[in-house]
Amino acid sequence: MAVDVLIYPTTEKLSLEAADFIVKAANEAIADHGRFTLALSGGSTPRKLYGMLAGDPYKDQIDWSKVEIFWSDERCVPPTDAESNFQLAQEVMFSKLQIPAANIHRCPADEADRDAASLAYTQEMKRVFQTDGVPAFDLIQLGMGPEAHTCSLFPHQASLQEEVRLIMPVTVPKPPPPRLTFTPPLLNAARHVLFLVTGAEKAEALQAVLEGSYQPDEYPAQIVRPTNGHVTWMLDNAAAARLSQKEQER
Ligand SMILES: O=C1O[C@H](COP(=O)(O)O)[C@@H](O)[C@H](O)[C@H]1O
User: Which of 82, 83, 154, 174 gets the most CB atoms within 10 Å of its CB?
Assistant: First the structure.
């Protein structure tokens, strides 16, 4: 697995580079196999990036009719709720783009039966990817929390050991607790994973994830090691403050 660690002075600069990165990945995927399959995260870090993708010059640099969008985790709240990961992207990105509604695959995490919702989202994904196996996303964009959680995979939870389900319900220690999340087998089938991590409160966990020994039960972000894929970490100076290797600093 190839890993790049890129460090930027501000969230603004990081978001600009991430937008360039996504445009390039989209155009390469569309040229190669006719479409771009993208999984988004939630949280606050990607807000600026999503806004940039919906504005000039980026919005016209991607053929959005050829982009299929999923979410790597979702909170079990209505899609209009301020805590909804879908709502964030809808508000700052999709509401401003010409993208066919059929290409936006919202996670039905607000349904009462969370097992059925996980299964339905898995089936929707397999339909779009036309596979009975594990879909390989062109790009999964992820964040990381201060305790090294990613998607809704949190330390010491059974979801970290999941080998069969691709999406599963979890109850996590961060509000809102009930969520649906991608599992390790789905994450690790990706062609490319892009982590966006900002803020001093994540520096300690980030050092453990990138430079410590492999302990994914303690540091869930370590579990993301795509078998045939590439991982790019985009960090701001504050998050990267404790890293000892900063030769790629910009
Ligand atoms: O709860 C979540 O947190 C992570 C990290 O969010 P951030 O605001 O610290 O970037 C996010 O990636 C995930 O999608 C979300 O549900």
Answer: 154
